[in-house]
Design brief:
The longest helix is centred in the last third of the chain and has 17 residues. The termini are far apart. Helices cover 35% and strands 15% of the residues. Strand 8, helix 7 and strand 9 form a beta-alpha-beta unit. It has 293 residues and is of the alpha/beta class. The protein has a single domain, classed as Alpha-Beta Barrel (TIM Barrel). Helix 1 packs parallel to helix 3 and helix 7 runs parallel beside helix 10. It binds iron/sulfur cluster (SF4). The site of iron/sulfur cluster has 9 residues, from loops.
Length: 293
């Protein structure tokens, strides 16, 4: 029988600094089709969203027997695809997590998350929205089918005003594409106004398929990206990283901007000494939200 509650990072990736937690994905596949997406290298038919079979029943069985740890939802899909409006599987999942007292870290690019404000504000929940740029045109190229950044920022305002801790993932930062310090500062200024509690950032890692999609759209960046990711790159457990000095410089810039706005900062899977937030994934922000308002 399928199990849907899994330990996050069972492979113990050497640069992962996350506290122990579970990972769940109510859906397989993701319709946002981000150019830089990693799931296309390990999920068949990655852009077709389908609900997992008998998800809520089997998840409840898993939750009844599992030690209490935070649950991260979702890491290989978006828990709020369009189909969720009527399928309500993510909403059912939140209800189960609340019932069995499992804290949840929601990761999404969709403002549909605000539909579930009522549940999120009555349980231990933190919501992370990924926003890689505030530039609508650039976002349309990078994440062609995701809600525009402006809608995601509005969702942050709404979540924060209901006492739900929010985080923004500026992830990934792609050299020469969304790394302009001015534009990052414009974005962070807006995020500070929306009351976010942490910024998590990470650099792009090249996989053959996401690299192909990226250079197909950003042809003028091909040479530079090849140099960074195929000639001067660092390999970490078989993954193509940009060289450490470049990553330090890109992420150090984001950290300095976050510092200026007094927003705690962390990096994700980078192995760089830049964190100012108590946990890299925001799990320190998990408190009963109904006690915080
Ligand atoms: S939202 Fe995440 S899972 Fe979905 S396509 Fe974009 S990067 Fe991939």
């Amino acid at each position: 029988m399928a199990r849907y509650l899994h330990i996050f990072d069972p492979w113990n990736f050497p640069l992962c600094t996350c506290p122990k937690k579970y990972s769940i994905d109510p859906y397989t596949g993701c319709e946002h089709r981000c150019l830089y997406c990693y799931i296309s290298s390990y999920i068949k038919d990655p852009w077709r969203v389908r609900p997992k079979k008998d998800f809520l029943r089997l998840l409840e069985r898993d939750l009844k027997n599992a030690p209490k740890l935070p649950v991260s939802m979702s890491n290989s899909s978006d828990p709020y695809p369009k189909m969720e409006k009527s399928a309500k599987i993510t909403r059912g999942t939140l209800n189960l997590l609340k019932k069995y007292d499992f804290p949840v870290l929601v990761l999404t690019k969709s403002d549909l998350v605000t539909r579930d404000l009522d549940i999120l504000s009555s349980m231990k929940a933190v919501v992370s929205l990924t926003i890689t740029t505030a530039d609508e045109n650039l976002a349309r190229k990078l994440e062609p089918f995701a809600p525009p950044p402006e809608r995601r920022i509005r969702a942050l305002y709404e979540l924060s005003s209901h006492g739900i801790p929010t985080i923004v993932r500026i992830d990934p930062i792609i050299p020469g594409i969304n790394d302009s310090p001015h534009e990052i500062e414009d974005l962070v200024r807006e995020l500070a106004g929306a009351g976010i509690r942490q910024i998590i950032a990470s650099t792009y890692k090249a996989k053959p398929d996401n690299f192909k999609r990226l250079i197909h759209v950003f042809r003028d960046r091909e040479e530079k990206l090849r140099e960074i990711y195929y000639r001067n790159n660092e390999m970490i457990r078989g993954i193509r990283y940009a060289p450490r000095d470049l990553r330090m410089s890109l992420l150090g810039t984001v950290k300095r901007i976050a510092d200026r706005y007094s927003i705690p900062f962390s990096v994700c899977r980078e192995g760089l000494p830049l964190n100012t937030a108590p946990t890299c994934d925001g799990s320190h922000l998990l408190h009963n939200n109904k006690d915080q308002v």
